[in-house]
Every structure is written in C-alpha cells, then in structure tokens.
Amino acid sequence: MKKILYIGGFEMPDKNAAAQRVLANALLLREMGFEVSFMGISKDIQNAPKFVENFESHPVPYPVGIKQWMHQIITFVECDAILNYRPNYVVLYNFPAVASLRVSEDMSQA
C-alpha cells in the first residue's frame, strides 16, 4: 500500500478550515487505497489526538515567539522527521513557501 504524509498548518481534528479539507481529502485517498498520515500543528500538543478517523496524526507544536515562527517559516519540520514515516508521497498543505522549497530540496536528495 502506498503511503502519503500530509504536512502543514492544519490543526486536527477540526480546529481550522484547513484541517477539515485535509481530512476530507484523506478520506478520499483512503478509499483509493492509500495509507494517509498527518503532521499538522497543535496549540495544545499534550492533548493533541494521535489518531483522527483512524489516521495516524503526529502534530508539531504551534510556534510561540519569533525564533519558533522563523523555524516554522523556514523549516516547519526536519527532513528526518519526514523520512521516518517512509512515505511514497508527501503533500504540503497550508504550508510556508520557503519551507516548501527546503522540503522539496531535502526530499530530492534523500
């Protein structure tokens, strides 16, 4: 089964509109035979769900302060964290442009 990792500025399960769209897309992708996981954000990382509609969810902390916001914009998540899931495809949704370029470059070298 092909694996898709959805990464971006969505807060599961339904904390923002992006999360609702990502979940709807994931349900469709599951019907098409893909295994989908999420790596979104969470303002309450301690209580963030680990599963949403039987999809694995691995939230990253919502940025607080200038240093964390800069990391979010430039990196969002380290390449190693993405590669640990061994996805066949990575979908970036509601994602910073600079971080998108970095993920694209890192994934092409992996």
Strand content: 15-25%
User: Taking Cα atoms only, what radius of gyration do you get, to the nearest Å?
Assistant: 13 Å
Assembly state of the chains shown: single chain
Q: If classified by CATH, what would the architecture be?
A: 3-Layer(aba) Sandwich
Q: What is the name of the CATH topology?
A: Rossmann fold
Strand order of the largest sheet: 4-5-2-1-7
Name of the top-level CATH class: Alpha Beta
* Average pLDDT score: 93
Number of strands: 7
Q: Using the alpha-carbon principal axes, give the shape.
A: globular
User: What distance separates the N and C termini?
Assistant: 21 Å
- As residue ranges, the low-confidence spans are none
Count of helices? 4
Please summarize the sheet with the most strands: 5 strands, mixed
Q: In sequence order, what are the helices and strands, one letter per element?
A: EHEEEEEHHEH
Which structural class is indicated by helix and strand composition? alpha/beta
What would CATH call the homologous superfamily? Nucleotide-binding domain of ferredoxin-NADP reductase (FNR) module
- How many structural units, i.e. domains? 1
- Percentage of residues assigned to helices: 25-40%
Task: Please characterize this protein's 3D structure.
With about 110 residues, this protein is α/β, with parallel strands linked by helices. The chain has one domain: 3-Layer(aba) Sandwich (Rossmann fold), CATH 3.40.50. About 40% of the residues lie in helices and about 25% in strands. It contains 4 helices and 7 strands. It has helices spanning about 15-30, 65-75, 80-85, 95-110, and strands at about 5-10, 35-40, 40, 50, 55, 60, 90-95. It has a 5-stranded mixed sheet with strand order 4-5-2-1-7, covered by helices on one side. It is globular. The two termini are about 20 Å apart.
